[in-house]
Amino acid sequence: MCLVICISKTNKNATSNLEIQKMIDDIRLSMMNQSHEQYLSLEQRLNQQQTNLLQEQYKNQEINHKQQLELLDMLTRHHAEHRSELAKAVSQHGEVVAKQLNQLTQVTESRLDKLSQRVNDKLSEGFENTVKTFGDILKRLALIDEAQKKISELSTNVVSLQNVLTDKKSRGTFGEVQLYTLVANVLAPNQYSKQAKLANGRIADCLLNLPEPTGKLVIDSKFPLENYQRMTQCEPSDLEIKKFTAAFKQDIKKHISDIAERYILPPETSDCAILFLPAEAIFAEIHAYHQDVVEFAWQKKVWLTSPSTLMAVLTTAKAVLKDEATKEQVHLIQEHLNKLGNDFARFQSRFDQLARHIDQAATDVKQIHTSAAKITNRFQAIEQVKLEEQGS
């Protein structure tokens, strides 16, 4: 009985479990259906929202694209306006720079032309003075050449001293001619006198007009020759050579004494005189073998000269006369030198001032070149659309 009751209870429980399981399955199925419906609804809503979002995004893209086009167009217009203004400003600045550069170039060229003209004037003046000096030198050389030709002709015409000098008159004439030729070749006409008459009535062959303290210097061209000729014609072993030698020395000493007495008249003349011996052989003979004659001439202050030594004396006299003339004109020379120094100082000052102007012009041109280079670089940057922010 108990077993039947247990089985009956077991069957009831089994039936109840089946119902419960069925109910659970129905509920699960219902819930699954609801979930599926909700999922489909949610998916539909998501699709709708996605569609709406896509439409909104497309609209936003169209708006952004339109705004970008408008912004790009605005930037392009601003860029064109800025470029036009910049080109106009650069053009105006270039015109101003070109005008200033043109003015600077004109001023520089004008100053350089003036400087060139001054330099040319100074050079022309210097060349003229140089040409004039060379012309004077050539004239002097021509006079010297003519004098040398005359001396050569005179030497050619003198065949023999013994044949020409046959008497005292011939000797005196020959000595005077040679003396005057030498004096005329060295001194100016106003620096000497021919056949000058002295206060004592004596006539000097030549009188040199030297400055003080020397004064007027007499030159006598007469000389004794007879005993010299006899002395030179004797053989070295001849006994008469001593007699002729003594007579020659006596003649020379007497002639020296006569010159000292007649032509040394201080203060009218100098305290000395010159005895001109036209023959170099006589001069050499006296100085080589007759020293006592030379000493006697020194004591009497009569200087013995030959053609060669007289040329040296005349050259010295010319230098003295030239020095005296220079001393007389020294104040004029000094005045001209002072004026020349002042002119050169002004020239130096003006030249330095011009050099400073030229240096300043060079500096200005260099700065203009620098500005032009910067402008060119800025134009290149503009052409390459590489505009940078102007920080300064």
From TrEMBL:
User: Which chain positions lie within coiled-coil regions?
Assistant: none
Q: Does the keyword Transcription regulation apply?
A: no
Biological function:
Involved in DNA recombination.
- InterPro entries, per the entry: DNA_recombination_RmuC (IPR003798)
- The name this protein goes by in its record: Recombinase RmuC
What does the UniProt keyword field contain? Coiled coil, DNA recombination
GO biological process: any one? DNA recombination
Q: What's the family?
A: Belongs to the RmuC family.
Q: Which domain of life is it from?
A: Bacteria
